[in-house]
Design brief:
The protein is an alpha/beta fold. It folds into 2 domains: 6-120 and 304-320, ATPase, nucleotide binding domain (Nucleotidyltransferase, domain 5, 2-Layer Sandwich), CATH 3.30.420.40; 132-299, ATPase, nucleotide binding domain (Nucleotidyltransferase, domain 5, 2-Layer Sandwich). It contains 11 helices and 10 strands. It has helices at residues 37-41, 48-70, 89-106, 115-126, 166-176, 183-191, 216-231, 238-263, 279-292, 301-304, 309-320; strands spanning 6-11, 16-23, 27-35, 79-85, 110-114, 134-139, 144-151, 154-160, 268-272, 295-297. The strands form 2 sheets. The protein has a 5-stranded mixed beta sheet, sandwiched between helices. It has a 5-stranded mixed beta sheet with strand order 8-7-6-9-10, with helices on both faces. Helix 3 (89-106) links the parallel strand 4 and strand 5. Helix 4 (115-126) crosses helix 11 (309-320), helix 6 crosses helix 8 and helix 8 (238-263) runs parallel beside helix 9. The longest helix is centred in the C-terminal third of the chain and has 26 residues, at 238-263. The radius of gyration is 20 Å and the shape is globular. The two termini are 33 Å apart. The chain binds 5'-O-[(R)-(carboxyoxy)(hydroxy)phosphoryl]adenosine and zinc ion (ZN). 5'-O-[(R)-(carboxyoxy)(hydroxy)phosphoryl]adenosine (KG4) is lined by residues 14, 140-142, 167, 170-171, 182-185, 188, 273-275, 277-278, 305-306.
Length: 341
């Protein structure tokens, strides 16, 4: 039998300080996530400088715990992986510097991982049988990408957002209706109490490519609705606004994704990223894929939002294809999917 490949992975691109130990890209030996959300809630969003400082405070503890929870010693692992982009440059630099120091100390190679590739690979942990090719919708706070996963580590972007990312739209609308940060989970929760068909919000128009997305028009429509209702002294039912907004986002994500899967002749579809933990979205895709006989893959919510287990999964496929970074690996805030340093 081939030797097991065990990777220590680190993620610090936004407001989660996370470390995990992953075996053969699919098995979690440990997964530690320290979320800074409470800290940033005070400011209504992630403050990069505060995030960087908190990562410095926490990273040692988080990585130590991931190693001890795994029951292994670092020297017996095969590589140290780290997210090197895209993301906030200060937070990324904390993880990249820490990973390089750990790798150097233990005499292990460093593998830099693309954050979005990590999100996609969370599906390999959750679904042991999933293999490319498949289509994946990545919906996070910073990205909305419809991606053709042609092979391990090989991606083709079919569509992307022209303006706000889906998660960003959730966060902005949540702020407008007084729910605060982070908006996604809060809108998800109160939407269950509202009527998703009570207010007609626009389904975002298609942009340059037939699979592109646009969410800023929808966000403006929600703001206009709130302004008009308050000027006319009409009652605003927050639950209905949240549910109707969420439904508009879901409709567009589902219709574009199903078109992409069917027109490109795929039989497998996956979702990934923070917004993929949305319960309405998960149900809608479950139904849409069921009706079309498409195999649907989705990570559990804890592997949808930022974590290091997904970085370890992506790093395994990079490792076996020969990717090794040197100690000159740098953080790249706007790293493109498929691009390598
Ligand atoms: O993937 P992620 O943790 O970080 C980025 O890479 O951006 O995604 C965070 C985003 C935030 O915008 C958050 O509001 C959204 O994911 N989100 C959700 C839910 N949970 C997190 N959006 C909708 N419904 C949720 N349940
Ligand atoms: Zn993310």
């Amino acid at each position: 039998m081939d030797k097991d490949i065990v990777i220590l992975a680190i993620e610090s691109s936004c407001d989660e300080t996370a470390a995990a130990v992953i075996k053969n890209g699919r098995e979690i030996l440990s997964n530690v996530i320290y979320s800074q959300i409470d800290l940033h809630t005070l400011y209504g969003g992630v403050v990069p400088e505060i995030a960087s400082r908190k990562h410095i405070d926490k990273i040692n503890q988080v990585v130590d715990k991931a190693i001890s929870d795994s029951g292994m010693e670092l020297k017996n692992m095969d590589a140290v992986a780290v997210t090197y982009g895209p993301g906030l440059v200060g937070p990324l630099l904390v993880g990249v510097s820490f990973a390089k120091a750990m790798a150097y100390g233990a005499g292990l190679p460093v593998i830099g991982v693309h954050h979005i590739e990590g999100h996609i690979c969370a599906n390999y942990i959750a679904n042991k049988d999933l293999e490319p090719p498949f289509i994946c919708l990545v919906v996070s706070g910073g990205h909305t990408h419809l991606v053709k996963v042609t092979d391990y580590g090989k991606y083709e972007i079919l569509g992307r957002t022209e303006d706000d990312a889906a998660g960003e739209a959730f966060d902005k609308v949540a702020r407008a209706i007084g729910l605060g940060y982070p908006g996604g989970p809060k809108i998800d929760r109160i939407s269950k109490e509202g009527d998703p068909f009570s207010i007609k919000f626009p389904r975002a128009k298609v942009g340059n490519s037939e699979y592109d997305f646009s969410f800023s028009g929808l966000k403006s429509a929600v703001l206009n609705y709130l302004n008009t209702a308050s000027m006319n002294n009409e009652e605003i039912v927050t639950e209905n606004v949240a549910a109707s907004f969420q439904q508009a986002v879901i409709d567009v994500l589902v219709s574009h994704s199903m078109d992409a899967v069917e027109k490109n002749g795929f039989k497998k579809f996956a979702i990934a990223g923070g917004v993929a933990s949305n319960s309405g979205l998960r149900e809608a895709f479950e139904k849409a894929c069921g009706e079309r006989n498409i195999d649907f893959f989705l990570p559990p919510p804890i592997l949808c939002t930022d974590n290091a287990a997904m970085i370890g999964a992506a790093a395994y496929y990079e490792y076996i294809s020969g990717t090794r970074h040197g100690l000159d690996l740098n953080a790249i805030a706007n790293l493109k999917l498929g691009e390598r340093q």
